[in-house]
Amino acid sequence: MRLALPIMLGMLSQSVLNLIDAALVGSLGEVALAGVGIGGYAMFMITALVSGLSSGVQAQTAQRTGAQCATPAQPLNAGLLIALGVGLPLTLMAWWQAPFLIRLMTQTTDVHSVAVDYFRWRVVSLSAIAMTLCFRGYWNGRQYTSLYLRIIVSVHVLNVFISIGLIFGYAGLPQMGASGAGAGTTLSIFIGLVAWLLVSVKGACQQGFLQHLPSSQQIRQTLVLAFPHSFQQLWFAAGYAVLIWMLSQIDTASVAVGHVLINLSLLMILPGVGLGIAAMSLVGDALGREARQEAHRWGWDALGVAWRLLALLALPMLLFPSTLLGLFFHQEALIALGRLPLQLTGAMIVLDAAALVLAQALMGAGAQRTVMMLTLSMQWLLFLPLAWWVGVVHEYGLTGIWLVQLMYRLLNSLAFVWVWQRRRWASPL
């Protein structure tokens, strides 16, 4: 909990920031809100391409720390070089092709224009995001997770004030409307990157930070660990886009309710994700000391805590579904439609605990490819085809799709338990 709590709070801070951004832009009208939503999702998909750098750097750092290596910051150097090498060309390509990318998600002219402007402001920060993920992975791997919390909360507070000034033109700043939200977020990300750099220059130079160029073997090892996680995150996000499309084939009410249920579930699983990231460091550290039994036990200990927390969070969904849905909907028909699926969502987040925690723990052991194959095969070969067949073809609708998702979450967690118990991952990198 000492390691996981700062990560949970940092993730919660990101969720709160998203809600504040929506409220600020929402005051400009539905076109602005829709444009920012679409531009933000496009940015989420592009960011997924570099997201694996965090786990790749963290897994190596944790194992080097456990093995008492004199230069645990070498993976950080490699990660930063990759972040620049991948991030800069990707930024240029995405900025240039922004109209085409956004047109894939909306053909409405006014919404398209807002989304392109917002996305272009956001994508300028892609390399900074990639480098920030490397710094976060390094310090989490060294088990200084409270540092992540302090920096991310400070950056988010700055983001709110800068965005308010740029959206509405306060304090002598230009009035940029919806684009101001993108510019404010990008500026705050660069400020956060400077903070990470200063902290790391002060606290990691003696561990090898910026002392030598990374070797080709170190770069290759980091890429081998980062690519599967990035690929997994990209297609995992795409799976949610397909799910929303499926709901649109049923009716508008299903899309509205499904959107709320998905966002609630993503918020409620944050404790599981935070504990999983903590387990990644603990498993990596134990394997670095060649304490294989301890590494295996850390997975189960983290999972035990996650089950308790997620079960506690699931109780209101199971016992008071109508009350919770009433916070989002005022039509009785929508509340009735979402009642059983929300209860199923509560059961889901408990069943999902093993997958959430053990997937991260496996990445701490360097088993990113195993996690990718298992996650994507379960999602794309089992859940999505079955959800289409049950919910759309046989017309069981939203409830049918959520029942299939409950089964998928259970099987996914059982698969991760099986992989964890086989212990083929239990060897240092």
Automatic annotation (TrEMBL):
Keywords: Antiport, Cell membrane, Ion transport, Membrane, Transmembrane, Transmembrane helix, Transport. Pfam families: MatE. InterPro entries: MATE_fam, MATE_MdtK, MdtK-like. It is a multi-pass membrane protein. Its main location: membrane. PANTHER family: FMN_FAD EXPORTER YEEO-RELATED, MULTIDRUG RESISTANCE PROTEIN NORM-RELATED. This is Multidrug-efflux transporter.
